[in-house]
Amino acid sequence: MNFRLLRIRFAAITSLAGMLSGGALISTASEANYVLPDPLLKIVFAGGREALFVYEPESKGLYKPRQLLHRFPPNSWIGDIAIRGDDLYIATHTAIYLLEGAVTKRAGLQAKRLLWGMPPLAYFEEHQGFHGLILGPEGDLYISFGDNLVGYGDFKRADHWGHWTFLHQEKRTPFTGAGGVLRMSPDGGNLDVLARGFRNPCGLVFDSQWDLFSNDNDHESIPSEYVPGRLLYIAPLADFSWPRGWLLEKQPWRAELLDTLNPNLGRYVPSGQCYYDDTFLPEELRDDLLVAEWGKGVVPRYPLRPWGAGFKADELPFLICTNKVRPVGIAVGRGGRIFVATLYMVANEASPVARSDIVMITRADDSPDAPFDAYEETRADERKLVSELANPSWQRRYRAHLELVRRIRSTHKPLLKEVSPDAHGIWLAAAQGQHGWVAALAKSGDAKIRVQAIRALTRFGNSPADYDIFTKALAGLIGLYLWFENFPRPVVKALASSQDTFVRQTACQLLAVKSSLAELEAMADSIGASNRLAAVVALGMRLTVPRATLPLPDECPLDASSFNPRPRYDGGTEDLREHGRIGAFTIAAYWAKKTKSEEEQKMFNCLARRLNDADERVAKQSAYYLRLLADPSTDAAAARLLKITNAPVVLPIKSAVVATSTELPAAYRNTDWAAEAAVGNADHGRVLFEKLGCIKCHAAAAGDAGGGGPSLANAGARFSVAYLAESILVPNKEVSPNFRGTELTLSDGEGASGLVVGETAEQLELLLINGTRRTFKKQVITTRRVQQLSPMPEGLVKDSVELRDLLAFLISPAQGTMK
Predict the structure, then answer these.
(1) d(Cα 284, Cα 290) in Å, to the nearest integer?
(2) What integer pLDDT is reported at residue 332 of this predicted model?
(3) Which of these, 178, 478, 578, 817, has the minimum number of CB atoms within 10 Å of its CB?
């Protein structure tokens, strides 16, 4: 859940459930639940799910009691809102809606569905889907969405793809991918895929130079591959590789992986995200990203610093929540103050209803009524709006820019006679058709001006015939990809070997899509290893990465069993199968069934030859792509190069007993387990973690392989000790929706139950209660049912001393313990 405070007149328009008595604004929250390390700051308590509320500012004070604007169907998660003129755009997990006039109207509002069609998971639909929503420099909506497949595929050769049709206005756009970021015109008429390869990106923000950032939730059940989480700079065309890869630091030989802002985030469950570049709070916060990190109950900040074509950022503390308080949303408003939305939650839930706070973070010397200079942007004249573009506050510049772009695009004619050659003026000029002036700036000696001009020319589709200006930066490569059939091959081939991961990946994508096969074959057989590596990446992309918005051939097998094809929207239920095929597949399954073209066979043969390349990195990159195809002629050789071996034999946990209890045994009640763990023997707990069989399913540290169960890395900072004790003794007390058991009935009458840890169109793999795994052919499964029970056994801990020491071990690596 997230919210934005973007309209200067409105200090709070929020999607929070707002569990405040009678809708009053005064919260019963305790200041002890929040810690600000900076003594110059203080907290003011200003305080959803399917409900959208507005808090009007008081003339003398903070806010009036909330007013309900609109209520969506039950269990609709509102991830974000965006404000354009007097209109509100809302992202729920199933659709993007428009509430026309909702900034000023308080009654008679109707939700108009602008974008939908993504099928949710059948058993766990709320946590993925649409999340972030923000307006960009050209006035379009940018939308993030998560991967609704999550655990699908054979993670021994990690790969899966979803396919469905996005519906917008009267148009249909087929999509193939996992999580991603979309760009859509405000009327819903035009839709583009901006970036792919995300697991579950939530926050979505622009900085003051229109650089786009998001975050990505890690995959805790396989921590050795997909932990830590990710903080990401999003360039157009970027592919962040989930589930095929995660961090370059984990596989430094992979030439197609992108850098992240910080590879040391640990277990990471980010939700809302904002960018701060205002003058009200201390100078050190300028040009920072701030992320509401649900998992650890903190809001860290990340000072941005350029790093090649991307960015890097250290993690610094900003807000620390205690007593089961977890931040879920963050925004900037009311003259540069920061607002944080929090929920009181012990652990993850499918669709929680929880007490919540809205917290305003301000200066220690701020007045009680938090004054701010407001104006009506939709009523202001152009002179006022242009003057706002020079304001030191990014939020004020951003709002004025969006209002000017809205007016230009609404009237379809020039509005401004003069603009400045900066991050605002260049985009405004391009929007009103001054392409010659912008093209001249694309040759500027100032890198910031040049990049903005190239981006604006690329976005508005009026690129000059002289494509030499598009070889100077990452933005230029993107322009070459989108607008030119011909391109300067020697330059692009050189950039495909760049040390900069964003430049390298984009150049390889350009080669993959626009080079002839003969060109790529010649590169793959050339003398230089860097050229051969670039060719292998381009060939691998062309052969194994489906184009995002092209229809899938009918021969591609789609498994729709994990999807709910009939989501509920505002206005009713709709069967998505009526609009096109939906389902999941792996490239290996598609390769096995498809009729190979002559070109595909040649690409395959070229990659196969490179398995014997003298350069180890070229050989391994070829092996990586061939491994995805699971072709019998190359699979064993590819596995040897990648040092992939059969999984070790796992001995069953002999004392595993199916969990049936839902309450703590009497002997363990009325005990302060936090106090007990504090005096426990962590070394003995470490021995127990292995002896009792916990290690077969759970990772205890970020680098552990894990066995498919929830990660316990940094557990003391993420969960209360009481919750950990309950989870060990009574696994069914609180069951995370990601880790519910699945019950199977087989054609021979046999039954089986466990945690699904792998699935393809042909088979399903369960982690059984005794810690072993078993694979079932789908053709012998007659029924399949997700249980409300945990697949974890109970009764492993024999007495309170064992529990005390095990808890001491689980909280020992953490920097702090949630009380």
Answers:
(1) 13
(2) 95
(3) 578
Of the candidates 521, 443, 446, the residue with the CA atom closest to the CA atom of residue 476: 443
Q: Would you give the DSSP letter of residue 621?
A: H
β-pairing, 191-198 vs 204-206, is: unpaired
- Please answer whether residues 553 and 594 qualify as being in contact, where contact means their C-beta atoms are separated by less than 8 angstroms: yes
Q: For the chain, first and last CA: distance in Å? A: 24
In this prediction, residue 31 carries a pLDDT of 67
Q: CA–CA separation, 248 vs 230, rounded Å?
A: 11
Kindly state the tokens that stand for 706. 């894990």
Residue 599 near residue 520, CB atoms below 8 Å: no
Smallest Cα–Cα separation from 281: which of 318, 314, 317? Answer: 318
Rounded CA-CA distance 88/102 in Å is 6
CA distance linking residue 464 with residue 154, whole number of Å: 46
407 three-class SS: helix
152, 128 in Cβ contact below 8 A? Answer: no
Report all structural domains of the chain as residue ranges with CATH numbers, in order of start.
12-363 (2.120.10.30), 666-811 (2.30.30.100)
Sequence-distant (6+) residues with CB within 8 A of 781 are: 744, 745, 746, 747, 764
Looking at residue 673, the DSSP 8-state letter turns out to be H
* 635 burial level (CB within 10 Å; 0-12, 13-18, 19+): middle
φ, ψ dihedrals at 261, nearest 5°: -70, -30
Q: CA–CA separation, 309 vs 353, rounded Å?
A: 42
Q: Are 474 and 237 in contact (CB under 8 A)?
A: no
Task: Please list, in sequence order, all residues whose beta carbon lies within 8 angstroms of the beta carbon of residue 319, skipping any fewer than 6 positions away.
Answer: 34, 35, 36, 298, 299, 327, 340, 361
- Exposed/middle/buried for residue 209 (C-beta within 10 Å: 0-12, 13-18, 19+): middle
Cα(88)–Cα(104) distance, rounded to whole angstroms? 10
> Tokens 């350069």 appear where?
615
The whole-number pLDDT of residue 287 equals 98
Q: How far apart are CA 667 and CA 627, in angstroms?
A: 52
Q: For residue 554, give the DSSP letter.
A: T
DSSP letters for 77-99: -EEEEEEETTEEEEEESS-EEEE
Alpha-helical runs (H) found in 461-597? 474-483, 489-495, 501-514, 517-524, 529-544, 587-593
Going by C-alpha positions, the residue among 393, 294, 282, 382 that lies closest to residue 335 is 393
In one-letter notation, the amino acid at residue 126 is E
C-alpha separations of 618 from 11, 517, 607 in Å: 55, 18, 10
Q: Name the burial class of residue 770, with classes exposed (0-12), middle (13-18) and buried (19+) by CB atoms within 10 angstroms of its CB.
A: middle
Task: Report the candidate in 340, 346, 336, 295 with the shortest Cα–Cα distance to residue 318.
Answer: 340
CA distance 426 to 416: 12
Query: Pick from 198, 176, 187: which is nearest to 118 by CA?
Result: 176
At residue 778, the 3 state secondary structure works out as helix
Collapsed DSSP state (helix, strand, coil) of residue 229: coil
Q: What is the mean pLDDT of each successive set of 10 residues along the chain, which is 819 residues long?
A: 33 32 38 76 56 85 87 90 95 96 92 96 80 97 93 86 96 97 97 96 97 94 90 97 95 97 94 96 96 94 96 96 91 94 81 81 91 92 95 96 95 84 95 90 90 90 65 77 82 93 95 95 95 98 97 94 92 95 95 95 97 96 97 95 80 82 85 89 91 88 80 84 89 84 89 88 88 90 88 88 91 53
CA 260 to the chain's CA centroid: 13
pLDDT recorded at residue 816: 38
Residue 64 per-residue DSSP state: P
d(CA 316, CA 299): 9
